[in-house]
Design brief:
- The chain is globular.
- The protein contains 15 helices and no strands.
- The N terminus is likely disordered.
- It has one domain: ABC transporter involved in vitamin B12 uptake, BtuC (Orthogonal Bundle), CATH 1.10.3470.10.
- It is found in: Cell membrane.
């Protein structure tokens, strides 16, 4: 295995472009699927709401218990959509930056680093500002990403996919233990910070969504604007430099966009894993490897997957619910094992 900068370019067959018409049809299909899942999210939960009440609540009515339930589910659905889109897009960018098919904010320990930073700041430094949560989470995500990449780069072969995945998994497990060590002795925060150990979108409000939206908007913009550079990096660092791309700047800029998305989403929803792993691989099957198409599809696919996982978690355990982080783990863990067992796991 070779370092990320000298890996061979992908096979020619992998670079065959999908016709624009096919991509547009898949785009329409994904958008319609996301809209249907969002409707299901406001209709189904601990109690099922008739569609008449759903439409009435969406129109502003709040006259019955069913309509009140829909009104409460709307911000939860919105949070699931924006967090899922952020994680899906971050996964696509991370896989493009590292050319690592195993890259995922959860697997590489980025989300858990953000969680540990937030919990530590709250427990020992009295952090109470929701905006402060985001800044601290961004710092934790960046530090964790740098730590994992440094550890994964040690030894012969540099930062290979499997070494990064192993370093990230070990780091994530260690940080999860540290989160528990910080939270468990503090009964005053243990209940409210359970989501920083699992990940969930329960208890969402428009205020919480609004507080994180500016950070997510910056992350989305930086990541999507990096699409062209990621296409160049996919050809290998030497060829990208020959085409006039400033490789280090392009890689760092895209990584910053992904870290902002991870930190902001973790600050508001906790460490949700595997969305950024599953979604980019599925989207490549639909639209190919052109990041100008792939990254928007990753955002839409991540939103659909996380919202669907939240609906499933609410329905399968009525009247209780299963946190969305558990549902995504049940979906993503077998997929992760499948990717690891593939013979072409060396690079994208």
């Amino acid at each position: 295995m070779t370092d990320v900068g000298t890996r061979p370019a992908p096979d020619a067959a992998a670079l065959v472009r999908r016709p624009a018409r096919v991509r547009l049809l898949w785009l329409l299909a994904v958008v319609l699927a996301l809209a249907a899942i969002m409707l299901a999210s406001v209709a189904f939960g601990s109690r099922t709401v008739p569609w008449g009440d759903v439409w009435a609540a969406l129109g502003g009515a709040d006259d019955s218990l069913e309509q009140a339930a829909v009104t409460k589910r709307i911000p939860r659905t919105g949070l699931a959509v924006v967090v899922g889109a952020a994680l899906g897009l971050a996964g696509g960018v991370m896989q493009g930056v590292t050319r690592n098919p195993l890259a995922d904010p959860g697997i590489l320990g980025v989300n858990m680093g953000a969680s540990l930073a937030v919990v530590t700041a709250v427990a020992y430094f009295g952090l109470t500002s929701p905006t402060g949560y985001v800044w601290v989470a961004l710092a934790g995500a960046a530090a964790s990403a740098a730590f994992v990449y440094t550890i994964g780069s040690l030894g012969r072969g540099g930062a290979t996919p499997l070494k990064l995945a192993l370093a990230g998994a070990a780091t994530s497990a260690a940080f999860a233990s540290l989160v528990s060590a910080v939270v468990l002795p503090r009964n005053d925060i243990a209940g409210s910070f359970r989501l920083w150990q699992i990940g969930g979108v329960g208890g969402a409000s428009f205020e919480r969504v609004g507080q994180v939206l500016p950070f997510l908007a910056v992350g989305f913009a930086v990541s999507l604007l990096s699409a062209r550079a990621l296409n160049s990096l996919a050809l290998g660092d030497e060829l990208a430099a020959g085409l006039g791309e400033r490789v280090a700047v392009a890689r760092a800029t895209a990584a910053v966009g992904a870290i902002v998305l991870c930190g902001a989403s973790t600050a508001v929803a906790g460490p949700i894993a595997f969305v950024g792993l599953v979604v980019p691989h599925a989207c490549r099957l639909l639209v190919g490897v052109d990041h100008r198409w792939l990254l928007p599809f990753c955002a839409l696919g991540g939103a659909a997957l996380l919202t669907a996982a939240d609906v499933v978690g609410r329905v399968v355990a009525r009247p209780a619910e299963v946190d969305v982080g558990i549902v995504t783990a049940l979906v993503g863990a077998p997929f992760f094992i499948h990717i690891v067992r593939r013979q072409k796991v060396r690079a994208l």
